C-alpha cells in the first residue's frame, strides 16, 4: 500500500516538474524572440530542453549561446548533451575547450574522464580523475570513478584503495561498497566481498546489483543454495535483470538442475542477453540432458556472435561426438586448436574422435600433444594406451596404462591385467 502511495507521489512530482520545464521553455522562447542576441536566454533554454530529454535541441541552443558568448560553463553543458547522445568524441572536444577557458574546472575534468571511460581510454580517464581529485580532494564520486577505471585495467589493489577513499568521504556510498566487493571477488577474497555486499544492501535494501553480486561470491564460495536466494531477490527487485537470470542458471547447472538452468538461460536471452556466453551456457545444459541437436543449435548461434572463441567449437565438438558424427567432431577440434594451439583438452578429444574413425596413428599423435601440454592428464595416458594397443604396441600400451594408474586412474590397472599378461 505504501509503495503505491509513494509511486503516486513520485509520479505527480515528475509531472509537476515537467510542467514547470515546459512553462520555462515557452517563457525563454518568448524572451529569445524579443532579444535574439541574449546568450543567457539560449543557455537557459538549452538547459530546460536537456531536462525534458531533448538533447539535440539542447545542443542547438548551446551552439547559439556559444556563438554569442563563448564561456567554459556552456561548453561543459554542451559536452554533457553530446555525451547523452553517445557523441563522446564531440563531448571531449567541448570539455577541452571548457578547460582551455577555465583550467581549474574540476567537473570538466571529471566528465571528460567519463567520456574517455566510455571510449575505452581508461588511462586517459584516470589522468582526468587525478586532476579532478587534485582540485577537489573530498569528492567521493571522483575516487569512485577512478576506482572503476583502475578495475577495468585490472589494477584491483589500486581500485580498492580508491573505493576505500570514496567510502571514507561518503560512508553511505552503497555503490562504492558494491564495486569494492566485485573487486575483492576478482582477487578471490569472496568473504571480504560478501561483507561489502552486506553493507551495500544495509544502506540500500533495494539494491538489485548488490544481491546479484553477493550471489556470485556465495556461489564461488560453494554456498550455492544461498546464492539462489540472492538471485531470486535480485530478480524480484528487477524482473528484467537478464544477468541475474543468467547467473542463477549457472548456479542451477552446478547443482545439477539442468532443466531449471535452461529456463533461466531462456529468460536471459528473452530479456535481450544477445551474447555468446548465454547461448553457450544453454548449449552445455542441453547437452547434459541429452539434447545434443538443441545444444548444437545454441553453439551455432554462439559462434555467429563470437566466431573466435575456441571453447564454443570445443563444446560443439562434444555434442557432435555424442551424436556419432566423428568427422564433424574432428573439424570442430581443428578449429578450436587453430584458435588456441595450446588447448590440451581439444587435442585429447580430437584424438578420441580419430580413434573412432580408425585413425589410431593420428589418435596417438593427438594424445602426445595433449600430454605434452598437460603431463598430468591421466585420461590422455589411458586413451593413448588403448590406441597403442590397437596398433599392436603392447609395451607402449603397458607404459601408458601404468602412468595413468600412477596419476590416479586406477581402472588403467585393470587393462594391464587383462591385456598385458
Q: What does this protein look like?
A:
By secondary structure, the protein is an all-alpha fold. It has a domain at 344-421: Alpha Horseshoe (Serine Threonine Protein Phosphatase 5, Tetratricopeptide repeat). Helices cover 80% and strands 0% of the residues. The chain has 24 helices and no strands. Helix 14 packs antiparallel against helix 15 (258-270) and helix 16 packs parallel to helix 18. The radius of gyration is 30 Å and the shape is elongated. It starts with a helix and ends with a helix.
Approximate shape = elongated
The CATH fourth-level homologous superfamily of the domain at 344-421: Tetratricopeptide repeat domain
Q: Structural class, from secondary structure content?
A: mainly alpha
Measured distance between first and last alpha carbons = 81 Å
Instruction: Give the helix level as a range of percent.
Output: over 70%
Major sheet: none
Weakly predicted, low-confidence segments:
1-6
Q: In DSSP terms, counting alpha (H) and pi (I) runs of 4 or more, how many helices?
A: 24
User: Could you tell me the radius of gyration in angstroms?
Assistant: 30 Å
Order of helices and strands: HHHHHHHHHHHHHHHHHHHHHHHH
Please state roughly what percent of the residues sit in beta strands, choosing from under 5%, 5-15%, 15-25%, 25-35%, 35-45% or over 45%.
under 5%
Total beta-strand segments: 0
Based on the coordinates given, report the CATH architecture of the domain at 344-421: Alpha Horseshoe
- Mean pLDDT across every amino acid position: 96
Task: Using the coordinates shown, work out and report the CATH topology of the domain at 344-421.
Answer: Serine Threonine Protein Phosphatase 5, Tetratricopeptide repeat
Amino acid at each position: 500500500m505504501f509503495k503505491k502511495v509513494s509511486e503516486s507521489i513520485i509520479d505527480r512530482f515528475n509531472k509537476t516538474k515537467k510542467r514547470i520545464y515546459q512553462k520555462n521553455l515557452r517563457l525563454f522562447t518568448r524572451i529569445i524572440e524579443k532579444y535574439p542576441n541574449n546568450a543567457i536566454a539560449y543557455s537557459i533554454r538549452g538547459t530546460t530542453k536537456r531536462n525534458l530529454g531533448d538533447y539535440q535541441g539542447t545542443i542547438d541552443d548551446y551552439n547559439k549561446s556559444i556563438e554569442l558568448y563563448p564561456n567554459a560553463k556552456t561548453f561543459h553543458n554542451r559536452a554533457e548533451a553530446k555525451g547523452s547522445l553517445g557523441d563522446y568524441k564531440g563531448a571531449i572536444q567541448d570539455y577541452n575547450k571548457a578547460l582551455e577557458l577555465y583550467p581549474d574546472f574540476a567537473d570538466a575534468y571529471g566528465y571528460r574522464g567519463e567520456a574517455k571511460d566510455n571510449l575505452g581510454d581508461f588511462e586517459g580517464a584516470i589522468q582526468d580523475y587525478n586532476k579532478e581529485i587534485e582540485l577537489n580532494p573530498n569528492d567521493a564520486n571522483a575516487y569512485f570513478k577512478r576506482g572503476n577505471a583502475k578495475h577495468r585495467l585490472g589494477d584491483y589493489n589500486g581500485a580498492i584503495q580508491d573505493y576505500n577513499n570514496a567510502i571514507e568521504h561518503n560512508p553511505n556510498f552503497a555503490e562504492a561498497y558494491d564495486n569494492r566487493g566485485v573487486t575483492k571477488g576478482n582477487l578471490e577474497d569472496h568473504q571480504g566481498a560478501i561483507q561489502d555486499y552486506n553493507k551495500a544492501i544495509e544502506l540500500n535494501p533495494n539494491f538489485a546489483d548488490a544481491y546479484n553480486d553477493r550471489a556470485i561470491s556465495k556461489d564461488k564460495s560453494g554456498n550455492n543454495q544461498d546464492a539462489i536466494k540472492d538471485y531470486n531477490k535480485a530478480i524480484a527487485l528487477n524482473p528484467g535483470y537478464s544477468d541475474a537470470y543468467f547467473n542463477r542458471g549457472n548456479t542451477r547447472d552446478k547443482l545439477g538442475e539442468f532443466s531449471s538452468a535452461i529456463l533461466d538461460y531462456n529468460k536471459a536471452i528473452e530479456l535481450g542477453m544477445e551474447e555468446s556466453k548465454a547461448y553457450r551456457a544453454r548449449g552445455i545444459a542441453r547437452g547434459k540432458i541429452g539434447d545434443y541437436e538443441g545444444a548444437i543449435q545454441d553453439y551455432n548461434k554462439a559462434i555467429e556472435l563470437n566466431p573466435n572463441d575456441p571453447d564454443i567449437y570445443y563444446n560443439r565438438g562434444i555434442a557432435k561426438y555424442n551424436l556419432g558424427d566423428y568427422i564433424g567432431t574432428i573439424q570442430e577440434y581443428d578449429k578450436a586448436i587453430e584458435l588456441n594451439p595450446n588447448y590440451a583438452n581439444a587435442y585429447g578429444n580430437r584424438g578420441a574422435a580419430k580413434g573412432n574413425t580408425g585413425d589410431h596413428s593420428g589418435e596417438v599423435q593427438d594424445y602426445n600433444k595433449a600430454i605434452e601440454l598437460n603431463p598430468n592428464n591421466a585420461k590422455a595416458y589411458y586413451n593413448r594406451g588403448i590406441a597403442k594397443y590397437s596398433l599392436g604396441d603392447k609395451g607402449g600400451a603397458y607404459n601408458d596404462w601404468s602412468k595413468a594408474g600412477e596419476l590416479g586412474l586406477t581402472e588403467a590397472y585393470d587393462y594391464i591385467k587383462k591385456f598385458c599378461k
